[in-house]
Write a structure and sequence with these properties.
Layout (H helix, E strand, L loop, with lengths): L1 E2 L7 E3 L9 E2 L2 E9 L2 E8 L3 E2 L8 E9 L1 E6 L2 E6 L3 E4 L5 E5 L5 E9 L10
Parallel strand pairs: 3-6
Antiparallel strand pairs: 1-10, 2-9, 4-5, 5-12, 7-10, 7-12, 8-9, 8-11
């Protein structure tokens, strides 16, 4: 489920954002919590940067935008999230995060499940 800012037409086809997918970086990941079945990481992405596509088989993920603007792409749609907005992705959801704003994107990556590592496909 996506929680976008009010009055924001946030769902767009993913191909509308392909021009933003040129830099793949995980800038300054800061792990805040790594416990059994829970993980919280603060991510910072510079404008125009993106994370590679991810898939978590055994963990759900909630993304909370602390500063900036993010496009969360999953399936064939994208949701734009602004400061204070969040998106929850169930297990087995392919997704990509792009900083579509003009300032650094700071967001919390909160995972919960049997395996909360970056790539749990081997779990």
């Amino acid at each position: 489920m996506y929680h976008a800012a009010p009055n924001d037409h946030s769902f767009r086809p993913a191909h509308d954002l392909t021009h933003s997918l040129h830099n793949h970086h995980v800038a300054n990941p800061q792990e805040l919590l790594n416990a059994d079945r829970h993980r919280v990481v603060l991510l910072t992405l510079e404008p125009g940067d993106s994370l590679p596509e991810q898939l978590h088989l055994s963990a759900s993920k909630t993304l909370v935008v602390m500063e900036g603007c993010a496009a969360i792409m999953r399936d064939n749609a994208a949701s734009l999230l602004h400061e204070g907005a969040s998106a929850t992705l169930p297990p087995c959801t392919r997704h990509r995060i792009v900083n579509t704003g003009k300032i650094p994107l700071r967001m919390l990556d909160i995972r919960s499940g049997a395996c909360v590592e970056d790539d749990d496909r081997a779990a």
